[in-house]
Each structure stands twice: as C-alpha cells, then as structure tokens.
Amino acid sequence: MSEKEIYSRLEEVFSDVFDEDINLTAATTADDIEDWDSIEHINLIGAVEDEFGIRFKMGEVSGMKNVGEMVKIIASRAK
Amino acid sequence: MLKELEYPFDASLILKKRRAFKRTLLADGSSRIRRKIAVLGGSTTDDVVSAAELFLLNFGIEAEFYQSEYAMFWEDGVFGNEELEAFKPDLIYICTSTVNLQFRSDPALTKEQAEEIFAAQYSRFETLWQKLERFHCPIIQNNFEQPPYALMGSMDSWDYRGLGYFVNRMNLKLAEYAQSHEGFYLLDLARTAAEYGLNEWHDRSYWFMYKYMCARLAVPNIGYKLALIVKSIYGKNRKMLALDLDNTLWGGVVGDDGVEGIAIGQETGTAQAYYELQQYVGDLKKLGVVLTVCSKNEEENAIAGLEHPEGALKPADFAVIKANWEPKDRNLLETVQGIGLLPSAIVFADDNPAEREKVRRGVPEAAVPELDEVYRYIGEISGAGYFEPVSISADDLKRSEMYRQNAQRAQLQAQTEDYGEYLASLQMHAEIAPFKPMYIQRITQLTNKSNQFNLTTRRYTQSEMEQLAQSPECVTLYGKLADKFGDNGVVSVIVGEKQGSDLNIALWLMSCRVLKRDMELAMLDELVKNAANAGISRLIGRYIPSAKNKMVKDLYPETLGFSPVSADENGVTVWELKLDNYVNKNKYIEVN
What we know:
Order of helices and strands of chain A: HHHH
CATH architecture of chain A: Orthogonal Bundle
Strand order of the largest sheet of chain B: 15-16-14-13-12-11-10-17
CATH class of chain A: Mainly Alpha
Number of helices of chain B: 23
Largest sheet of chain B: 8 strands, mixed
Helix content of chain A: 55-70%
Oligomer: heterodimer
CATH topology of the largest domain in chain B: Rossmann fold
Distance between the termini of chain A: 7 Å
CATH topology of chain A: Non-ribosomal Peptide Synthetase Peptidyl Carrier Protein, Chain A
C-alpha cells in the first residue's frame, strides 16, 4: 500500500470521526484538530485500526508523535 | 430513524460516524421526549454514553447526560456533588462491571473471609442504591460479567474461593434487590458479554490503556441494552408483531401445498424450527404483544394453516388477520388504525425481502427486521429488543395506563359540578354494532369474566359466540367506548334471541370500567334500532340474581324504562319494553 493511499484513507477516517473535512500531513498532531482530545483519541485510533485491519501495540499508541509516525506503522503492518 | 442504528448494527461504523449520526438525527424534525440521565461509571463510560445517546435518539428520546468523573460512581452516588445534585436526573445508570468488584480468586481464603468480603462488597452497592433514592427516579444497575480468566478453571464458578462464584452470587443478590424494589432495574451485562463472546469482550489492552471495561467494539452493545431499558421505561416499546405466514410462520406455501403439506410441528427439523418460532411468538403474546397476520393468501387458506393441529399458534391468537392480495403496507396501516395503535407500534416479520422493502417504504415508522433462515428468526427478532419489558408483564403496564386514565376522569369529574357537563366534557365516542369476527375473542373474554354488571351471568365459548353472530335468530351487539383520555375497547355485550315479534335478552353485560357513563343507554338505543329493523316489537329482559350482580337488580325499570312482567321466588324478574314510540335515551355519547 502506497503512502498516498494510506493518507487518503486516513483523511476519510479522520473526517468521519471529527465530522468535518480534514487534510493530513505527516506533521499533523492533536493540537491541529480542535476536537482531538483524549477521549476522541481512543475512538480515532480504534477507527484507524478498523479501517486498516490492524492493531497498534500498546506502547505504540502513546508513542505516536504525529500522523507521519502513524502512517509509518500502518505501512509496515497493513497488507 | 437511521437504519445504521437498527439491530444488528455495525459497532465500528457507529463509533466512527457518531458525530454525523447525531447531527442527522437531531435535524430530522421528529419530535422526541427529553430526559436527563446520570451515568455513574466504574470505568470509562464516554463511548457507552455516546452510543446510548444515538440509540435513544433513534427510539424517540433526546437524552442529556451527566457522567461521573472516572470510576467515581460510588462517591458521586453516596456523597453527591454539586453538579450531580443540580442536574436532577430523570434516570440514573450505574455502569459498573467486574473490574469494580474488590475480590480475586484466592485459594488461601477461609469460608468466613470470603463471606465477609462478599457481604461488604454487596452492601457497598446497596448503600449506593439507597442513597440514590434521594433522586426519586428509576435506577438501572449493571449486573456483573464473568471475569477475563478463571484461576481455578471450572472450580472458580462453584467454589467460595473463586471470583466466578462471587460474580454468580452477586448477580443473584442484585436480582433479589431488583425483584423487591420498584423502579430498580438490572442491565444484564453478563448476558451482553456472553452474547459478544467473553474472550473478545475482555480485550485487556483497552482496560490497561484506556480503562474500558471491555473491548471498544463491544461498548455499543452496552449502550444498546441501556437504550432498550430506557425506551421501555418511557413507553417507547413496539406493541404489535405483524407476521407473514408462508415461509415465515410455517415452511411452504399453504395455498399450493395444502395444510397437510406445510412444515410445522415435530416431524422434520424444518418443521421443528417453525414450531419453535410459533412458540416464541405465542410467548410474546403473553408479554402483551398484539399479534396480527399480514399475508398474501386467501383468508380461508391462512386460517386453515393457522389451525394446523401441529402448530403452536391458533387463529384466535391474532388480533387481526389480514390475508388478502392487497399491498402489505396498506394492510398494516389499516390494521393499526383498526385496533387503535400507531404505525410506530409495528414490527413486521416477513421472509420475503421484496415485501420487507415495500413495507419499509410504505410505513417508514415500522420496524422491519431482516430475516434470514428460519432457525435464526427468533434471534433476529429478540435481539432487537422491540418489546423489552421492565415489569412483570406488559398487561400490568396497560392496566396502569388504564388506571391513569381513570384517575384523570375522576379528576375532571371533581372539577365539574354538573354530572351531565362532566359526561359531555369526556367527548365520548361509541362503536356499537353486531358482533364482528375481529372482536369475538374479546367479546367472549368479557362475557366470561363480567360478574357485576351482568344481568344473566350466562357464559359462552368462543365458537358459541361465533354461532350467535351468524344466527338469523339472534340480535347481537358489542359496544366499544372511547373518550378523550383513552380507548376502553369492547366494554359491553348484548345477545337477544328472537321469539316471534319478541326479543328475549339472553345476555346484557358491561365492563365496570365504564360504569356511570350512560353507555347502557347508548346500547339500548342501538338495540331498539336493530331489533325494530328485525321486525321486533317488544324487548323482554330478565334479571337473574347472582352473588355479584346486585348493582343491576333495578337496571331494567329504573335506568332503561322497562315495565314489570313477572317475578319468581328465586328473585328472577322479567321486564318488557314496547318499541313503538321509543325515544332515544343517550345524550352524551356519539355513536358510530
């Protein structure tokens, strides 16, 4: 799966979760999206996992600094 | 209503799109009741709340939520806090689970120690419930699901040292409390977890990372179970199950295969599956669900199929049987109108996807479960919780509604000085007509249980009633009475037997629910009219005393204006009314 494809699918997931159009870059963090709080974070991570059919490892979730790191993990794991 | 929120739902989709779903529902223009729900949680409850919120909106309830701080259910409930007190909940939901039980399986425990812990843990909850009584509102409490693992294997479930046993025992104590406390209900978390699959339910990463009691995708199931109980408490249950017949209530097509050719009973596996479904449907009727038939069939074939000796249901189990070739959506709308229900009361069960789709379009308020294969029908209907009860029987609910209406009438009466003015203000409507098949069951039931306003106390079987309805030698009347507070249904029955130009009134009875409403006068007016049309010139009435019918001893002379004919030593009195120059007596009830 190309990075481009991952970004486009991620943007769809983010847009669904936050119910607004969202453009992502590798540098996007929770600070850039108003509703991205700790509760929504759980939901967002879950929605991303469902979308790509993967599970993040326990340490990975808290370790992800930005969307770029999330994409890297997805790219390494999703088929 | 959103199809995405109907059972069986896609939990992942609901969690992902909850904002959009909420926005759509709130903008759909439907009217909803508003309720305030305080959720006192023992773990993270945000997703429980957001799922429940959506399901409730779909059930016609707009809820505002209070959520306790993380795991502060006990402190909030027992000690209170300003926010909760000011919130003034209409309903409290205690969302706890096995993570909130302070007990671990421990082989070193003595029986006394285990006993002490159990008592302390239970009383912790009981204290909470008692403290919450200050809000005077319904309380819903989760029971406890089995833990993630069983230290002692199966022994964990039966030995006093096991958490499995502790959970089982706790659940029994909770059930006992619920049974003895009105307005206290349990959400069956144990079953919810089992339905989901315990191993999948206990995704411990969600506990360790986010303090979720269970896997994220299991959470909407808890929200759904909560919404089912809440909608039931607020009277938003469905009330009617309309069933197709061929390949829904039995296998095969009765019109083609004949009664002997359909699959129902014990002969084959398929027949047994349909039999189990019929049993389930019969049990729903006991819960107070109104059963109707909506089938493309000749009526005589439909009846014949339902009379199959191996079936668990009989034609009389159905309030309405619509077996014809009209569109089903039209039949359904006619059915609810006929029995005084709204389209939102309907659950429509049909094996044919095309019929289901037509009904979904024609009656958008109806619930139309997807039915797949007969052995799954019951799960597909029951899992949705359309008829979820919260008290012993739906009959009780109906009865309490009736009492409420009567109380309103009494209140109105107290406010109105003149009795006639009161009767006029009730805006009563009666339907009085010769027996109809639709009402025969109710007519028979009423006839066989009425004791007080019953002049002859004669009892009849349903088939006798059916014969009377057909007989040219009889004049039959049933009376339904409705007023601005509600519909009382069939409340009065008269059977007259012709003898030359006389009509002998063999049966005259009325439900005590409608005493002193002048319904008996409306019945007499219609009886006179129907009798006169049948060439009758005189009514003969008899009062046969029983232990319970003293209230109508003088009904014929005093209320109905009959003249005495004779009396015997047993207290039986005979009265007559000549029909020439009869003037209608009813003033306050609009008839037919």
